[in-house]
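Aim 2 progress update. The chain analyzed this quarter is reproduced below.
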Amino acid sequence: MVEHIVRFADRAEPIAVRAGTLLIEAARRLGLDIQQPCGGQGRCGRCAVRVESGLVRRRSVLRLSAADVEAGYALACQTVVEGDVSVVVPPVEQIERRLTTDHIAPEIVAPNGYDAAQAQTISRALLRLSPPLISDQTDDWARLCTSLRR
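Predicted structure tokens:
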């Protein structure tokens, strides 16, 4: 398997990784702590790093703007090493969520004539169940069904 050298700007020693390794894994192996609150799913943008030079493949840039990608930013959890790479990890206090504004959910509006009282298949009911007693060996399910019938 082909190995590539990954250099992180704040670390003196580089690390050799196999082709196809994620940048976040290379950072972990060097002891670098890069936050990823989303668990590495590429949804939060908190693991943004800047690729100074080298060959990488970005699996997802959903949370980065076109300007960020042009400036060399990549999500460490979504970026695959495909050549020798030099990476800068911004300080935690400088990393901002890099969420693009064109990926927002549309406003949801109920259709005209929608009546929630008739259209909903779920309704709320206030129930008062008799407490379980030693003298009454009725199980919980039966007590619930009896209360619902009332």
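Helices lie at 23-30, 66-70, 116-119, 140-149. The chain has two domains: 3-94, 124-149. These observations will guide the mutagenesis experiments scheduled for the next reporting period.
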